[in-house]
Sequence to fold (596 residues):
Amino acid sequence: MNKTVQQQLQAEAASRANDRVTQVRDRLRVNEKLEYVGKGAVKSAFPGVQDWVLLAGLYKQLGDTEKMKTCCLNAIQLATEKAATIEKLSPDNASGTYEALRKAHVMMAPYSFHHFLLVLEWDIKPEMKFYTSRFNVIHPWVDDMQALDEGRLEVLTISCPPRVGKSQMGERWMLWAMSRHPGKSILFVSHTAAMADKVLRDILAWTTDPRCHYAEMFPELAKGIDSSMQNSWIDFPSQEKTGYKTAYFRGLDGGMSGVLEASHVLYLDDVVKNLEEALNPNTLETIWGKVSTDVMQRMTNSHVGILSIATKWSVNDPISKLQELNEGNRKAKFIRIPGLDASGQSNFMYKYNPMDTDHFMKLKKTMDPVSFATIVQQEDMERDGLVFLKDGMHYYDGVLPNDSPDIVCAACDVALGGGDSLAMPIAYVFGTDVYIADVVHNKGSKERTRPLVVQKIITHGIDKVHFEWNAGGDFYMEDISDMLRDQNYHCNITGGRAPSNQSKLMRILGAAPEITGSITDGNGYRLFWLSEKARQSNPEYVSFFNEMLNFSQMPKAVGRQHDDAPDAVSQLVQFVLLSKKNTGGCQVLSRRIFGI
Fold:
């Protein structure tokens, strides 16, 4: 067709649509004056709703999306306000109004996750509906998930008990987001490839089930959907294709092989499979390692959102790690809903088939306390036994007192790899005030950590260091001593073998009053830590301090958690600061005694 003729036809169609808009708007102004008489009967078939929807369709034809949405919302609001009246109309008139209401929701669906969810189950029996039956509980999530899709949030995590519908909500959101951004990519990752494949099949099923009205909501996409079960992807047609598919589905057990990316959102769904995995700190570390490297490196830029929906197991699981990484980020939101509220009542009283208080109390009787706390109450398994609370520590802004310190000292918990960290807090002592100014917290080999330790000792002018080790650590201390001697640096170095796990726990608990600064003895030491703002520029300090906060005295945690940081600080207290009280120890002499 000649381009000029095509433009002329489009202009004529737009003109007719504009004329029709004027007619419908005039009719709406008349209909606003309708009076209700008798027992809810009206003088017409309640044309207001239908006219608003007709007007919305005309604005859609003209490409005026905002006015279209306004008309749809007006129709929905009017139908909601007059629901009792509409129900009293004749079957034919009521049917026309209900159909207009459905069309209003269909037109809103590409722009509103809430309306998309309603249309997806429009023809489902009320007691079988997913969203409307749970509306009172999960509706607040909808606004947040829309905010993530629109970029108003960068990170969103949702944690709540199993079987409440969190994963189903995530799958529905994924289909909606894919449909809105077919030219971008979403990477879905779960604990296993089998679970990822199930989600792929669920999403495809919604696009073809006539009861879901997907083709009506996204007609330009419905007929061109492509997928591969073998390669685990779904692709929607788009004029903005970059060579990547609209969605990829992977399990952590299968790796991130193949051509895939996340250019819109990275979606993590229950990447920790069960309590058994959560109880093993090495497994959690491996999972986070896969997520933070293999998975997150697939994000194309800093604007890619992250959605994580899962049970919150531990202070070391991916949701907790994401919280740590986004501490202070105003565009990050973390939703946690326990099974029972503070008064012991259910948080999941759905309209149909509620998970009532009795349901959760029965679970509590059959589950061990740790399982109930994590799986149902979404409490980190370590939380009940936490020794060091964030609000219970003393802080300073990074500026040390003007006087010269009495002594600069450190304690080094030696690690030679294998998943443990070498931990060394560095303290400036002014009277009884002890400022932890710097740390080493590194999982590297001894070839990597020895130069770091030596550098810190010399840079800070450390007077005394106590080393503690398991097998082979004595050689590490000797290597440090030799390296310092080679640089003509003199430092008082002491050391000894590490105690058992139980003895280590008792030492940490014994040093807790000094570590938290809560000691009541007027001559006792009080430790001060860098404030949150001051420590942000020191990644090893951040990881060291977080390990302090995560330390638990619960029996199930002892010997199965990363405790290098609190152990090193307890050594600092016992063998350096309080060494003059220990038989056979060395007394720490103040520089002031010598006038320096």
Summary: The mean pLDDT is 85. The radius of gyration is 32 Å.
